[in-house]
């Protein structure tokens, strides 16, 4: 394919046909500001901040949507270009609350950065502002349309990546707003709480519900025994909030930081991830051997659970009945752990640190109280924990490495890889293989189910039976797999589905920004952490073995069913 | 076929329907029946004849006698006198406003005399619900000619040579558009008719669809043949129920006669048309927004290129033309491109239909050759300004257009000349304003319209037009500040160069053109707190003429602010601090004692 040659600011640039001016300029090291642009997902030319001058064109053109053409002469910094960009930004800011100092996104706001970059000296327009109020109806996601710049990145992600379309552009003209259809409250629609919108929002117009104050209050309450669990993905991402490279493994510092905050015990969700494998693996084997409903589909990801309840209720019997590791942890903390330590479960306050906004919704589900109490009291996202650490003045990077507390902090590498797409599948295969065949796995690494490919398939020989498995991450990819199952185009025995692209490391509660490169680095860190663990198979976890011995009996036993398994609720599509 | 000695054409355009033509027609038919003339005289409902302010109107053929502003009783009289006894009813004829001269037939009336009707050739003449009447007027002959004796390339060449340009506003050469689509890779291809007419006061497209729907269908089929498309869509707004109804009927009839559908005229070429009804968003007149709406998505423009000719409906090559453009196609095919190109100016060929509205004597639909001057349209066809007032300006091109002041009355109306004056041809809205119009208020009106109709996608249009509106509003309220005119110009220019679509890029035009031609009016509002035309209420100062006031107290009684004071039987006064400038006192004063400064 022959290249297209164009001139940008006097530089000759050669690009493949179809390349946009924006991409061509980036290739030439020329920065063009953007706001609404989101590579491959939101290429709509709406914000008009990437305007450039193309010789011969009637008006300025948006670099993000205009393809380079042979002989095109582009100027990215003429007085007219700078003036138009600055004025358009000034207009956007004239409809944006000037609450920067108290805003959640202060110093991480793209609008703020652009204002500094383009040099908007003053806002000359004082007029009407967006008429919509904050929507805090959802337990996980807060919409603040006042701060919305209508870049529509959230809409694009919700529609194109997640296939949910819980939010869309409503009304028109100055009253245009991104909201659920008919301006319904977000908490009452088919939003799955995945929070992918909050990852791409350039401002604080969509963000996680901040619940740090509840945790501060519990920590300050001498009556409460406050325990914390950390999800696998948090240890490979929270460092980013303190300037560390994406993919830095900071498990020990994370434990230390949580102790500094005052948690009585620092536990690990990896422990219940191992437990999940015991329960779910047994469930799989049970269904395979007894003609149960197949394919079995994983149930760790609460965004995915709400998605299937809304969009594929007929497949609910295929879901594993296992609670997610977070909820198993909560149920055990207020029963097994409480008994073991002799603490009144009413005094135990369970906090989760999750990469996930949907976990907030999950913890609040009415059925999640099998301990007799609300199993998990507060869910904080990675971002919220980062903010707490900053408020506490903790110098994260200089903390020593510390170990998790026993027994609920003891885990294997199989628990760690729950944080990446394909991890639950791989962990399950490690255990199922050994339990079914009685043989020891030669290689623990199931490479086919790893990586950022949207849908991954593999086939594993389990003592003579071919076990066909599929892994999908991102709900758009989940749809592909489910449609193939519903239409009988594909047959699987076991499917892992994670709501967010990349799995939990790409969760809606993770540090900003996120792109595929950052996802890949976090995933690499997850597998590195796995390799560093002395034990890498869930059934070898001694604490899990003790738990069965001392408390649960056996996988899928009566107590397991009471505490570790759940049921689902079919919901309307809207 | 039955023969009649006379035909009575009753205009059943939406304007005449509003003014009561159905009752007139019923009275006429009843009288004809009563007089036993039903086998001699046929009553035909037609589409819009044009002179809407004269409605209801009828024309009696073979003489062509034109009767206007009829009531049912008048229809009875026409039946008894004219149709039975052959005596023209003098008092119901048209009288010219300038000299009171009576015109018997429509060709004696300037309004009709000066027009050249190509797009409107059948509108107001045939029964739009009768495909036979369309065929009798050479209908579907052009399609027959194309399918049986021309190659697709020859059709495109013919349209290119005619010089026809899009009548929807931008004036892109139609033949070129067809050629792009024909050559674009991708199948299937589509033909779309843009009937989402939305400019305030414009109703050219509605009248053609209501009065001559087959002309559009025939043209779309011709284009389908030329570009290799078998499916057409007419996107028409839901506010045009009569157009939808007549178009649906026309599609049904055309299918019945084999003029649409499989293998038309047995040539193997198939083409069908479906209607898509829009919900009335102005922006859906923008072609990419219209296509999005047909596809079932939110009607919003997307960046171009790619143009619809390359990537249109469902990403396939699509020709999209507006109603009036389509209506020009069959005559071009039949009469040849040279004939069409001989009408109009060097770069603007053919005719243009305008919806003449505002303070002009004859309002309605007019079709004139390109290059006709504004003076001819307003004074010869339009019969001059109402009440003998002064012509001030014409707003042409609707909310995307601009105003043309009196000193340019002799500029020929064509695409280039209008653009040079800061206006645009647009779809053909032509609003005439007299000395009582405030140009700042006019700009405010159009800005309010575009702000309301902005789709909200790009920031300059969504927020920029809002800020412009706020500034213009404060000027009309007397709160204008030094620098406001310059700020409006700065914003306007920037929005023009940076908005995403045609709507946004032209939205500032009404403001920019009124500033350009009537800057002094803006200055009067801002610096002298005066509205020279006496329109902007907040800037009016009410006063009482002590000579005329007899102290009846009526004004003080009706004043909602208690701003009028004075002793009984003595001249009253107005407290300007309290006065709300509502004008109620002036309305109620029986002695004309209250005036504005």
Automatic annotation (TrEMBL), chain A:
Gene3D superfamilies: 3.10.20.740, 3.30.70.20, 3.40.50.1780, Fe-only Hydrogenase (Larger Subunit), Chain L, domain 3 (3.40.950.10), Iron hydrogenase, small subunit (4.10.260.20). It comes from the Bacteria. InterPro entries: 2Fe-2S_ferredoxin-like_sf, 2Fe-2S_ferredoxin-type, 4Fe4S_Fe-S-bd, 4Fe4S_Fe_S_CS, Cytosolic_Fe-S_CAF, Fe_hydrogenase, Fe_hydrogenase_lsu_C, Fe_hydrogenase_ssu. GO terms for biological process: ATP synthesis coupled electron transport. Its cofactor is [4Fe-4S] cluster. Keywords: 2Fe-2S, 4Fe-4S, Iron, Iron-sulfur, Metal-binding, Oxidoreductase, Repeat. GO terms for cellular component: membrane. CDD domains: fer2. PROSITE patterns: 2FE2S_FER_2 (PS51085), 4FE4S_FER_1 (PS00198), 4FE4S_FER_2 (PS51379), 4FE4S_HC3 (PS51839), COMPLEX1_75K_1 (PS00641). GO terms for molecular function: 2 iron, 2 sulfur cluster binding; 4 iron, 4 sulfur cluster binding; ferredoxin hydrogenase activity; iron ion binding; NADH dehydrogenase (ubiquinone) activity. Residues 80-119 form the 4Fe-4S His(Cys)3-ligated-type domain. Residues 139-169, 182-211 form the 4Fe-4S ferredoxin-type domain. NCBIfam families: FeFe_hydrog_A (TIGR02512), FeFe_hydrog_A6 (NF040763). This is NAD(P)-dependent iron-only hydrogenase catalytic subunit. It comes from Desulfofundulus australicus DSM 11792.
UniProtKB/TrEMBL annotation, chain B:
GO terms for molecular function: 4 iron, 4 sulfur cluster binding; FMN binding; metal ion binding; NADH dehydrogenase (ubiquinone) activity. Gene3D superfamilies: 3.10.20.600, 3.30.70.20, 6.10.250.1450, Glutaredoxin, NADH-ubiquinone oxidoreductase 51kDa subunit, NADH-ubiquinone oxidoreductase 51kDa subunit, iron-sulphur binding domain. Pfam families: 2Fe-2S_thioredx, Complex1_51K, Fer4_10, NADH_4Fe-4S, SLBB. SMART domains: NADH_4Fe-4S (SM00928). Residues 540-569, 570-597 form the 4Fe-4S ferredoxin-type domain. The keyword Metal-binding applies. Keywords: 4Fe-4S, Iron, Iron-sulfur, Metal-binding. Belongs to the complex I 51 kDa subunit family. PANTHER family: NADH-QUINONE OXIDOREDUCTASE SUBUNIT F. NCBIfam families: PRK13596.1 (NF010120). This is NAD(P)-dependent iron-only hydrogenase diaphorase component flavoprotein. It comes from Desulfofundulus australicus DSM 11792.
């Amino acid at each position: 394919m022959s290249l297209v040659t164009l001139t940008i600011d006097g530089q000759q640039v050669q690009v493949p046909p179809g390349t946009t001016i924006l991409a061509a300029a980036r290739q030439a090291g020329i920065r063009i500001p953007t706001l609404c642009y989101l590579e491959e997902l939101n290429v709509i030319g709406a914000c008009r901040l990437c305007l450039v001058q193309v010789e011969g064109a009637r008006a300025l053109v948006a670099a993000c949507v205009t393809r380079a053409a042979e002989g095109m002469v582009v100027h990215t910094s003429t007085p007219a270009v700078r003036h138009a960009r600055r004025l358009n930004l000034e207009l956007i800011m004239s409809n944006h609350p000037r609450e920067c100092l108290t805003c959640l996104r202060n110093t991480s706001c793209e609008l703020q950065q652009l204002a500094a970059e383009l040099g908007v000296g003053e806002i000359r327009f004082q007029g009407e502002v967006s008429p919509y109020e904050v929507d805090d109806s959802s337990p996980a996601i807060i919409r603040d349309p006042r701060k919305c710049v209508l870049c529509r990145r959230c809409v694009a992600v919700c529609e194109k990546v997640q296939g949910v379309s819980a939010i869309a552009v409503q009304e028109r003209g100055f009253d245009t707003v991104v909201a659920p259809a008919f301006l319904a409250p977000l908490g009452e629609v088919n939003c799955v709480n995945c929070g992918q919108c909050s990852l791409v929002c350039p401002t604080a117009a969509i963000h996680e519900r901040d619940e740090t104050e509840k945790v501060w209050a519990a920590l300050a309450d001498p009556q409460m025994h406050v325990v914390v669990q950390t999800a696998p993905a948090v240890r490979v991402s929270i460092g980013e909030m303190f300037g560390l490279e994406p993919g830095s493994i900071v498990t020990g510092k994370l434990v230390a930081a949580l102790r500094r905050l005052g948690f009585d015990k620092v536990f690990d969700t990896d422990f219940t991830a191992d437990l999940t494998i015991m329960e779910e693996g047994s469930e799989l084997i049970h269904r395979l051997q007894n003609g149960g409903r197949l394919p079995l589909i994983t149930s760790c990801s609460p965004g995915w659970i709400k998605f299937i309840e809304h969009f594929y209720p007929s497949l609910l019997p295929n879901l594993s009945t296992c609670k997610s590791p977070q909820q198993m942890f909560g149920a055990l903390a207020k029963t097994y752990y409480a008994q073991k330590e002799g603490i009144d479960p009413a005094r135990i306050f369970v906090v989760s640190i999750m990469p996930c906004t949907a976990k907030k919704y999950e913890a609040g589900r009415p059925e999640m109280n099998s301990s007799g109490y609300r199993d998990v009291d507060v869910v904080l996202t990675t971002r919220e924990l980062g903010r707490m650490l900053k408020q506490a003045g903790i110098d994260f990077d200089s903390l020593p490495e510390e170990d998790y507390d026993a027994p609920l902090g003891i885990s294997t590498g199989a628990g760690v890889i729950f944080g990446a797409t394909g991890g639950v599948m791989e962990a399950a295969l490690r255990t199922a293989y050994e339990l079914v065949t009685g043989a020891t796995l030669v290689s623990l690494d199931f490479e086919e189910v790893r990586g950022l490919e949207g849908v991954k398939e593999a086939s594993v020989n389990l003592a003579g039976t071919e076990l066909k498995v599929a892994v999908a991450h991102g709900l758009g990819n989940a749809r592909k797999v489910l449609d193939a199952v519903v239409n009988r185009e594909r047959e699987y025995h076991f499917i892992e589905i994670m709501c967010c692209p990349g799995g939990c490391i790409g969760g809606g509660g993770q540090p900003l920004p996120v792109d595929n490169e950052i996802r890949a680095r976090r995933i690499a860190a997850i597998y590195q952490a796995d390799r560093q663990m002395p034990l890498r198979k869930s059934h070898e976890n001694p604490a899990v073995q003790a738990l069965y011995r001392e408390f649960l009996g056996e996988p899928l036993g009566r107590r397991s069913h009471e505490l570790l398994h759940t049921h689902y609720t079919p919901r309307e599509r809207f | 076929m039955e023969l009649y000695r006379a035909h009575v054409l009753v205009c059943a355009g939406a304007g005449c329907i509003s003014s009561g033509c159905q009752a007139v027609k019923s009275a006429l038919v009843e009288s004809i029946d009563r007089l036993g003339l039903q086998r001699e005289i046929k009553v035909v409902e037609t589409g819009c004849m044009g002179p809407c302010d004269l409605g209801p109107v009828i024309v009696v053929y073979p003489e062509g006698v034109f009767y206007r502003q009829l009531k049912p009783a008048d229809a009875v009289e026409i039946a008894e006198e004219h149709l039975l006894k052959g005596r023209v009813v003098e008092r119901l004829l048209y009288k010219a406003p300038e000299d009171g001269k009576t015109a018997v037939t429509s060709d004696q009336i300037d309004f009709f005399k000066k027009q050249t009707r190509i797009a409107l050739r059948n509108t107001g003449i045939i029964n739009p619900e009768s495909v036979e009447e369309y065929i009798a007027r050479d209908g579907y002959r052009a399609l027959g000619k194309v399918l049986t004796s021309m190659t697709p390339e020859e059709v495109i060449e013919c349209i290119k040579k005619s010089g026809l340009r899009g009548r929807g506003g931008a004036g892109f050469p139609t033949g070129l558009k067809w050629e792009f689509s024909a050559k674009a890779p991708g199948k299937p291809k589509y033909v779309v008719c843009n009937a989402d007419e939305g400019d305030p006061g414009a109703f050219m497209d509605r009248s053609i669809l209501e009065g001559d729907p087959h002309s559009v269908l025939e043209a779309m089929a011709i284009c389908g043949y030329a570009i290799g498309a078998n499916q057409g869509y007419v996107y028409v707004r839901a506010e045009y129920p009569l157009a939808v109804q007549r178009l649906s009927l026309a599609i049904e009839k055309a299918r019945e006669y084999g003029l649409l559908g499989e293998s038309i005229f047995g040539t193997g070429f198939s083409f069908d048309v479906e209607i898509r009804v829009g919900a009335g968003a102005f922006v859906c007149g923008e072609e990419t927004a219209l296509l999005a709406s047909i596809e079932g998505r939110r009607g919003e423009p997307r960046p171009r290129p790619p143009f619809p000719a390359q990537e249109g409906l469902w990403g396939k090559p699509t020709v999209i033309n507006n109603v009036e453009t389509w209506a020009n196609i069959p005559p071009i095919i039949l009469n040849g491109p040279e004939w069409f190109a001989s009408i109009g100016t060097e770069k603007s060929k053919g005719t243009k239909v305008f919806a003449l509205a505002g303070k002009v004597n004859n309002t309605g639909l007019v079709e004139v050759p390109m290059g006709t001057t504004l003076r001819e349209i307003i004074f010869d066809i339009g019969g001059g300004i109402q009440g003998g007032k002064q012509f001030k300006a014409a707003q042409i091109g609707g909310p995307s257009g601009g105003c043309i002041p009196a000193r340019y009355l002799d500029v020929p109306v064509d695409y280039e000349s209008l653009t040079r004056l800061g206006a645009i041809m647009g779809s053909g809205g032509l609003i005439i304003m007299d000395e009582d119009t405030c140009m700042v208020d006019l700009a405010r009106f159009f800005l309010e319209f575009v702000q309301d109709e902005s789709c909200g996608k790009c920031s300059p249009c969504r927020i920029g037009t809002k800020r412009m509106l706020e500034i213009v509003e404060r000027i009309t309220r007397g709160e204008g500040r030094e620098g406001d005119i310059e700020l409006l110009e700065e914003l306007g220019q920037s929005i023009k160069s940076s908005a995403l679509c045609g709507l946004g890029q032209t939205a500032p035009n009404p403001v920019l053109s009124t500033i350009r031609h009537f800057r002094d009016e803006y200055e009067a509002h801002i610096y002298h707190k005066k509205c020279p035309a006496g329109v902007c209420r907040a800037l009016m100062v009410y006063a009482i003429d002590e000579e005329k006031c007899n102290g009846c107290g009526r004004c003080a009684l009706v004043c909602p602010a208690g701003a009028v004071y004075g002793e009984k039987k003595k001249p009253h006064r107005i407290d300007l601090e309290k006065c709300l400038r509502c004008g109620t006192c002036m309305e109620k004063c029986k002695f004309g004692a209250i005036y504005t400064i």
